[in-house]
């Protein structure tokens, strides 16, 4: 191995899953330098999926390796607060994937007292930084709605938060924006509550944040801080039926037709929708055959799960799928049901449609993403 050139080592390292790659940094200073080089990690561009589990646990899914490679295809990782030994009791932790940037995922961890911790987290290194701690209102459903993205430049990262104000001003949503560059909140905006958010996080694409809301999709131009509304695809009445995502840099939605049918729509120029794909899916002989989409990948694949927390990756390009696991073994059903009941209580998506997020592995430190 000592005679291998750097180009050969780069080619080998680029094909390795994340955890072995981190271990190889300990082989020598030279290997550590090669792997830690930001240009190498950027060229590696290994895309992963982060998915929530009960009690604040997380799972990193690697579609780059065969599903039979159970050691690397799905890696269970604990939430950031559990690394500090916090919240390991019976208290419920609900994890929402707010957004991602440069390998860092912004998590929102909400407990039963509706205390929400916003955490910048690197799933590869497990390094994290608590960005903010917010207190929710038990009368709000959900207590918070978030978005994470940037405007004119990539260093202009913003956290957008919606909350219903206290009485007597509960007829409007209060919108606050936290600037990670200046570590400051902007002056609050207010939106009349003539709509209801369908989920607790938004989707960031090309300088815009999108949320499903009642009969429309709410859009925010982050640079201009201007809101607008996008009509739903033809034939769809309620935004709650949709999962937002991005395919090829375009906003897309997937809606369910009956028990096993699905339509995928792409938003084209001039805010017109095009039906890109239709398919049916249900595992025969499986008592939990009703699946729901939880993440749309940039390459058009769709991560789906069922009530037994089984994960399936469906490929719309050739109408094939691969089963990733039998996730029921990862946690007992008492805990799963408790989380599901907690989410239903606050109108947060249930266990069968836990929203996941696609990110690119990096060695970026969470502290470098903010100046808090």
Mean pLDDT: 82
Through-space gap between termini: 43 Å
C-alpha Rg (nearest Å)? 21 Å
Question: What structural category characterises the helix and strand content?
Answer: mainly beta
Q: How many β-strand stretches?
A: 25
What is the share of helical residues? 10-25%
Report the portion of residues in β strands. 35-45%
Written description of the protein model:
The protein is built from 7 helices and 25 strands. It has 372 residues and is mainly beta. Strands 8, 9, 10, 11 and 12 form a 5-stranded antiparallel sheet that branches. A 4-stranded antiparallel sheet has the order 3-2-1-25. Strand 1 and strand 2 form a beta hairpin. The protein is globular, with a radius of gyration of 21 Å. It starts with 5 loop residues before the first helix and ends in a 12-residue tail after the last strand.
Strands, helices and their partners?
Blueprint: H1 6-14, H2 18-24, H3 29-36, H4 38-44, E1 47-52, E2 58-61, H5 70-73, E3 74-77, H6 80-83, E4 93-101, E5 104-111, E6 115-121, E7 128-135, E8 145-150, E9 157-163, E10 172-179, E11 184-185, E12 189-192, E13 203-205, E14 208-213, E15 216-221, E16 226-231, E17 242-247, E18 250-257, E19 261-267, E20 273-280, E21 292-296, E22 301-305, E23 311-315, E24 320-323, H7 333-345, E25 357-360
Antiparallel strand pairs: 1-2, 1-25, 2-3, 4-5, 5-6, 6-7, 8-9, 9-10, 10-11, 10-12, 13-14, 14-15, 15-16, 17-18, 18-19, 19-20, 21-22, 22-23, 23-24
């Amino acid at each position: 191995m000592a005679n291998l050139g750097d180009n050969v080592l780069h080619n080998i390292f680029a094909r390795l899953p994340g955890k072995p790659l981190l271990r190889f940094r300990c082989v020598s200073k030279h290997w550590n330098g090669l792997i830690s080089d930001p240009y190498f990690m950027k060229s590696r561009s290994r895309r992963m999926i982060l998915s929530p589990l009960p009690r604040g646990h997380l799972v990193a899914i690697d579609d780059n390796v065969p599903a039979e490679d159970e050691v690397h295809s799905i890696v269970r990782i604990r939430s950031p607060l559990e690394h500090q030994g916090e919240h390991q009791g019976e208290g419920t932790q609900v994890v929402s994937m707010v957004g991602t940037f440069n390998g860092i995922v912004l998590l929102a961890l909400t407990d039963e007292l509706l205390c929400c911790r916003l955490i910048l987290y690197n799933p590869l290194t497990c390094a994290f930084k608590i960005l903010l701690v917010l207190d929710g209102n038990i009368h709000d459903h959900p207590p918070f709605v978030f978005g994470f993205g940037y405007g004119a430049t990539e260093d202009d990262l913003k956290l957008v938060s919606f909350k219903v104000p206290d009485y007597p001003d509960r007829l409007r949503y209060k919108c606050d924006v936290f600037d990670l560059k200046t570590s400051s909140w902007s002056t609050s905006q207010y939106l009349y509550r003539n709509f209801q958010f369908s989920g607790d996080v938004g989707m960031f694409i090309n300088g815009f944040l999108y949320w499903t809301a009642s009969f429309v999709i709410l859009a925010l131009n982050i640079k201009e801080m201007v809101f607008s509304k996008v009509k739903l695809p033809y034939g769809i009445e309620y935004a709650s039926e949709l999962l937002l995502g991005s395919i090829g840099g375009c906003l897309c939605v997937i809606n369910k037709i009956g028990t096993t049918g699905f339509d995928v729509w792409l938003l084209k120029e001039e805010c017109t929708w095009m039906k890109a794909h239709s398919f049916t899916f249900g595992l025969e002989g499986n008592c939990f055959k009703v699946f729901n989409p939880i993440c749309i990948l940039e390459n058009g694949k769709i991560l789906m799960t069922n009530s037994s927390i089984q994960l399936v990756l469906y490929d719309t390009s050739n109408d094939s799928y691969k089963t990733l696991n039998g996730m029921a073994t990862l946690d007992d059903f008492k805990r799963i049901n408790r989380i599901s009941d907690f989410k239903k209580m606050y109108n947060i998506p249930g266990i069968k449609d836990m929203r996941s997020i696609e990110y690119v592995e990096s060695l970026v430190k969470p502290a470098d993403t903010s100046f808090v």
